[in-house]
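Good morning N.,

You mentioned wanting to compare the apo and holo forms, so I went ahead and generated the holo version with cytidine-5'-monophosphate. This is what I fed in:
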Amino acid sequence: MGKDVIIACDFATKEQTLSFLDTFTGKKPFVKIGMELFYAEGPSIVKEIKKRGHKIFLDLKLHDIPNTVRKSMHVLSSLDVDICNLHAAGGSHMMKAAIEGLTRDDGTRPLLIAVTQLTSTDQETLEKDLWIEKPMDAVVMHYAKTAKESGLDGVVCSPLEAEKVHNTCGKDFLTVTPGVRFADSSKDDQKRVLTPSQAKEIGSDYIVVGRPITAAVDPVAAYERCVKEFCD
Ligand code: C5P
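and this is what came out, ligand included:
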């Protein structure tokens, strides 16, 4: 898979999601399905979108004991999604178990990427709540390295961290980055944002874009603008 724009389909229902995707006549954008939609609609929404020919990043961020994650990933692998994820905080045993569970009998599996630290976690939360007394940057890089050593394919990170992740874990280790905004659009609740062309320059492999596309007056035009800035 090369560089691509992934649309965060943060809709509450199957109907809203499918009618949004219906507007992309002739195009099959890569879509991200998150917890809200998956918990509301279940595996059938994944199967339906897959049947329509889209690639899917299933953003469920698993984090549990290795045995539970192994078995859950095995279920997800049968949905034929393209990317799944988990929390690196679950540790290397959990990440290795996830790979085992995801790997199908023929040896194929979806890409597996790790959340290092949520972008909603700041230095204060890290120290006060999680009792991690290291700089955020060092924690993110350590978790990325552990994910790589456990056999994962990449991480979800801020576009501002993508370059450093590549320097630490290699160019082939994927960086999937949310927090992307057009220069002339609202930041919404995202704090540290980059434009699609800045994300490209900095070396993100995939950008995850939600509201700048889903809430645009013309979502298809907004998607095309993202692709032009990021992929061309
Ligand atoms: O609408 P917006 O472009 O902000 O959507 C970004 C998407 O990426 C949302 O689905 C959000 O949950 C997700 N995400 C994020 N920051 C992370 C991880 C995931 O914004 N660190």
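The longest strand covers residues 56-62.

Happy to go through it together on a call whenever suits you.

Best,
F.
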